[in-house]
Design a protein that fits this description.
Blueprint (H helix, E strand, L loop, with lengths): L9 E2 L5 E2 L15 E2 L3 E2 L69
Antiparallel strand pairs: 1-2, 3-4
Amino acid sequence: MFQDRCYDRDTDINNNFFADNMTNNIDIDVNNGMQGNTQMAMGPMQRPLVEPMQERCVHRTIMHEVPHVCPIRTRIINHHIYKHTYRPEYSCCEENVVSNINQGSCCGF
């Protein structure tokens, strides 16, 4: 009963329409009942015939830009290294020891 009239439609990023093979022919006889000297016969009005529904499918591509936040943290770690070095530092001390030698005095003490 229904014909498959679903056409593929291509769209680009700007939604421009591109389609092929979408031609339809509609033939209507508007000169029904012509007589003699191109005079129209006045007949009873007929109800129009309803044809089966035809469906056209339009495929769209819609692009959405979804921003994402990607947080990036830079952590700086300072490493303090203490290198202990040892060097000798020489010092010197001096002691003076005093000794008294008394060989007698003139007083006889």
